[in-house]
Amino acid sequence: MTQPIENLNVISQELLPTPSAVKDKLSVSTAVQELVRLSREVVSNILDRQDHRLLVVVGPCSIHDVDAAVDYARRLKEVADDTSDTLYVVMRAYFEKPRTTVGWKGLINDPHLDDSFHIEEGIRIARQLLLDIASIGLPLATEALDPVTPQYIQDLISWSAIGARTTESQTHRELASGLSCAVGFKNGTDGDLSVATNALKSVTSPHRFLGINQSGQVSIVRTRGNPNAHIVLRGGNSGPNYMPEAIQMCERALAENQLTANVMVDCSHANSNKDHARQGIVARSVASQIANGNRSIIGLMLESNLHAGNQTLDTPDRMDYGVSITDACIGWEETASLLMELAKTVEKPLNHRR
Known about the structure:
The protein has helices at about 20-25, 30-45, 65-80, 120-135, 150-155, 170-175, 195-205, 245-255, 280-290, 330-350, and strands at about 55-60, 85-90, 140-145, 160, 180-185, 205-210, 220-225, 230-235, 265, 295-305. By secondary structure, the chain is of the alpha/beta class. The strands form two sheets. The chain has an eight-stranded parallel barrel, surrounded by eight helices. A two-stranded antiparallel ribbon has the order 6-7. The N and C termini lie far apart (about 75 Å).
């Protein structure tokens, strides 16, 4: 008897519904379509200096509770409206978490938080949540991690991130070249800028790669390149990189590579030394630099939730409401106060950018 020679370590394979089938059941209203179109245009205009506002991507490190996410979104919409002359607020809706070893991989992969991996259900839950938040009137941001997932949800996304662990990946550079929204590439985990600058040069170019179409068929994807890519500074193993000298170093690196000086600062991760309570310090430094005349900083990121800190996933049925199960976040009261403070600090200097 001939012994099998392929899929030796594969236990099973399950078919997922096609992207078009999911979208047929969870369709986009005309109002939400217009929100996505306009928000993408605003982000593009901020990068092109046609809109003077500061882009602020803020929200939970990851979403695991859809009710808490909608609660957060309603609160954020009020602050976004109050600061809309100065800040352009986009809510983080991160459903996939990169893992170097093991751990919860996000709402899409494991919506029940119990390693059951009901991915089909996770896709539907994630898409419905995006529709619900967009219906509130908030534009949305996510991390593009799995190369298949974007076909299911990217029509609702106004800004995407490529994380520090995947910025060097050619697969993710190719993927980003075809995304319909602006995309921010984080510097590598070691703090090196060359990985991100190389990514920016790559993503603006056309690419051809394997992917799936809306019918779920494996296809050759041809892209024209993404003109709205920029760098995100998140610090590295050597320490933070949000200070003025680090921003200037980034500006020089972008200029040497003939790239536009568009810089977003991630107030979390290594820039806060992985201490969520330090995010406000980073954000205020960014605002101070803009007030002192910096013209390259176009945005910042904050990890924020209803309540501060984080919690373990040991007991999914007894978790605290509105508390992160991945990276620790600042709480809602601090978030709202910080956004109002930032808007006041940068209002006049941003108006001078016009």
